[in-house]
Amino acid sequence: MKNEKKNCSEEHLLFLxxxxxxxxxxxxxxxxxxxxxxxxxxxxxxxGWADAFLVSSPSRIARTIGSLYTEGTLFxxxxxxxxxxxxxxxxxxxxxxxxxxxxWWSETVRKVLEPYIVVLNALPKIALGxxxxxxxxxxxxxxxxxxxxxxxxxxxxxxxxxxxxxxKNKLLLLKSMGAGKVQILTKLVIPSSLPSFxxxxxxxxxxAWIGSIMGEYIVSRAGLGYLIVYGGQVFKLDLVxxxxxxxxxxxxGMYFLVVLLEKVLVKNAES
Amino acid sequence: xxxxxxxxSGVKYTYHTVRGETVAVEDLSFSVRESEFVxxxxxxxxxxxxxxxxxxxxxxxxxxEVTSRGSFGYMLQKDHLFPWRTIxxxxxxxxxxxxxxxxxxxxxxxxxxxxxxxxxxxxxYPSQLSGGMRxxxxxxxxxxxxxxxxxxxxxxxxxxxxxxxNVTEDVSEIxxxxxxxxxxxxxxxSEAISLADRVLVLSGRPARIAYEHxxxxxxxxxxxxxxxxxxxxxxxxxxxKELNA
Lengths: 271, 245
What we know:
Helices cover 84% and strands 0% of the residues of chain A. Chain A is mainly alpha-helical.
């Protein structure tokens, strides 16, 4: 890039400069808004405009996280929730992908199961809370089950519609070469649905967090969802806010990993 | 007279949907000889693509019989190169499907690509090529398994006029020099005249052969030269009338 810069026109240099300025502006506004919110929050509580007991404050959140750390329970709670979320995410994605493949494979099975999937998709999974407690007890298995349940149907529906949307003419082309169903699957359907797979992962990152936190609300004795419920019950809103903040960071980190994966996988998928 | 390589005898094909049945082709009989370039023209929606699918064995006739000696290569309207594969891997696709992905076959395909000007693009992705080059790559992919009969389904209609003339020129030269038998389906009368040895005119649905012409251009096979010849417009007029009859 640097070598190119030497040979390019004044106009192009100006264009690059403008672009850089715009980027700097966008980033400084982003950071500025965050600083403004945090500053006003802190200021309003320290000056007594708002009750820090009810709305907490950035410094109290930082202190809460610090004390969780010194108590030695910070990474225990983070780890518990993270593990439940990640394992649930992987199971939901893998199982959903597999089931979507099976449904793509057989039109009859697909037609038979369609109403069941539609109903399961529409059902609010939290309604199954009591059943889950009775079936799986009050530990991690129950939360995992909830996480998988929330993500699975979305994964199936997302991938199935991508598989079915495979270009009819490309299918015809492969068939004219004499391709069987397995070859059609491995050479066309799976690679051409890669962008949909990535977007499904992005959606399911959110789903996995919904599932794990919802699960922890219902049954858990550890994890960030547990801290939020516990903090609410004993009116420790600092704890609620601190856990919510940690959730934001973790969810953003997981989403970022998927975006990285996308950059590695979808280099040449534009048609 | 050369041997017959493809024959339709009394072929009928019916599509079934919940709303009813549609006879796409009926009582269709014709044959194609070895190394012959046959163009089929017909009004739009008359079942031209059905006809190619029948020829390739992708559809089984409801009545009658399709017999062929030899293997097929199918080329569609758009190039349908897979965007996630390089040109070389796209060209290799039919070899993989037919389990002929041996070093010799691969080399043959690559040499074919080099011979027809795709050498420098082998490691490029389709999105980096122009429309004309992509269609050329699609032809090389069709030729990779060395098929005896090429089935071309309006292979130029998605290109702009300028590119279409050039690609037609290209494809014609490649096909003639490889000595392939071709069955071309098109709705473009001048394309048919500029390329084919013989033109079959289909009737409206259900399609059957309405007219048949042996084109005589004194041995000239180059599409652009044919377009400049005196009898070109004569043929155009005849076929135009027959298509609109």
